Amino acid sequence: METHDISTQLGNELFCSGQQHSPAGTANPLGLSLICPCKSPWLVDRRIFASRIICLNFSCVFFIVSLIVLILYVCFRLVTLFMDELGHISHWRAIMAGSLAGMVATIVTYPTDVIKTRLIVQNRLEPSYEGILHAFYKIYHQEGLRALYRGVSPAILGAVPFSAGSFFVYISLDKIWQEPIIHFTPLQNFMNGCVAAAVAQTLSFPFETVKRKMQAQSPWLPHYGGVDVHFTGMADCFRQTVKNKGVLGLWSGLTPSLLKIVPYFGVMFSTFEFCKRVCLYRNGYIESPLNYKLTPGVDQSLHPQELRELKLLRRENFEPRKSALEN
């Protein structure tokens, strides 16, 4: 799905028509392009083939886990900074904290995104890179450190409409459902996440298109990485894309991108809301994680630690009375 998405953004029509063996730097299935440095990938020893796939999978898992941990840590620290004295945070401050967290995570992990794009768009029969580490080494020594951050400007600028759009849509859907967000079912949360992701991705997709073109274009790749337009920077890439493909060319590849990201955000939002209810249930604020019915006699303004101390104090006061009655 993502391979087709990137090839469409780059304007590579040969891949979309199935001619994956063209030498013109066409996009290709990611797995073969990562591990097959020879012209006939099926001549590779099966054991080497399997070992490289295992190493690739571990590398991808490592990068994904590192990205998730970094985003969560940065988001937690920024949310703490934007809180007021009572621990509350407004909608605008939440948007700023989320946007800044996404920008920091994007800048730190951006070289891996460039490497992923290069590995996808390279020619399968005559690959320029043999794997993740080889791509990192070759790009750094041939094109310099700046090449690993080529396209980071539209990525950072695109994070603003994406974060703001998804957040505003998500918090405004309670007016459509005509009930508070806390009463939404898992299905409603899933649908809200899907709608928010679709709107946000559509708003920020022109920046994503320009980013992919900037990542793929390289004088060291055949036909400059298979990019349909040639440019000198972000603004020139916007201008050349509109000139050659029209305004709608900035949204080329939106459909496969939505098919990937919409269910992803739907599951993420619904899982987040369910985990929040589980935490509220374990701390004694609600009666069940399946609904949002408040626990009778519990002060909802207390923090979890204060609530636990109150429960412990009540238990200590009750046990001496019980023992006295038994005596």
TrEMBL record:
Keyword entries, A-Z = Membrane, Repeat, Transmembrane, Transmembrane helix, Transport
GO-annotated cellular components: membrane
What GO terms in the biological process aspect are recorded for it? transmembrane transport
- Where do the TM regions start and end? 54-79, 91-110, 147-170, 190-207
For this protein, the record's SUPFAM superfamilies field holds:
Mitochondrial carrier (SSF103506)
How is this protein situated with respect to the membrane?
Multi-pass membrane protein
Q: Where in the cell is it found?
A: Membrane
**Pfam families per record:** Mito_carr
Solcar repeat boundaries on the chain: 89-176, 184-278
Query: What protein family is recorded?
Result: Belongs to the mitochondrial carrier (TC 2.A.29) family.
Which PANTHER family does this chain map to? Answer: SOLUTE CARRIER FAMILY 25
This chain's protein is named: Solute carrier family 25 member 43
**Taxonomic lineage of this organism?**
Eukaryota, Metazoa, Chordata, Craniata, Vertebrata
Tell me what gene encodes this: SLC25A43
